[in-house]
Amino acid sequence: DAKTTQPNSMESNEEEPVHLPCNHSTISGTDYIHWYRQLPSQGPEYVIHGLTSNVNNRMASLAIAEDRKSSTLILHRATLRDAAVYYCIRHTIDSGNTPLVFGKGTRLSVIA
Amino acid sequence: KAGVTQTPRYLIKTRGQQVTLSCSPISGHRSVSWYQQTPGQGLQFLFEYFSETQRNKGNFPGRFSGRQFSNSRSEMNVSTLELGDSALYLCASSPIWLSTDTQYFGPGTRLTVL
Question: Is the CB of B33 less than 8 angstroms away from the CB of A99?
Fold first, then answer.
């Protein structure tokens, strides 16, 4: 059970911003939100993660709703290289050391 | 730093055979996880090793096994191959804890069972 809901696919024009939504309405206080992406013929690649406040790195920004029931991955200027499947993952921080549970993800297409 | 490497990259086997896949984590990483990716089921967690001990196991039959060596390199073995075992097998490493650390994935080994 991935425990997150994402659209199956999205499309974006090159050099436009992209907002990838993720719903995690049953999230608990100890769950981090992780985003990974998988480019064609490659293994998944870490993008960003956060707990409560918004996060930025060189790849993307993560906006987490105040109630933490949803979040949005923001790619500020999509390039053709950003075409990939994007996975939003809830990951519990607990002493049990649980693995990542990947859902189906969102397939992002970027149009030149 | 070199990334996670997996060998071989491609493999063709027949039903009933066994196969061993290898994963070398990023230098200094002590946790190695294995995933199976198929079009129907997506990415599914197989198991995780840390300091030569299996810490976590997914819901796969006993035909799937693994081990980790003292240098953190890991192998996974699938015995009595079935057609449904055809998949991309991904290995990921992280510094210490699976829960909090970023995972770094290798390119995968594509296994085809005929």
Answer: yes
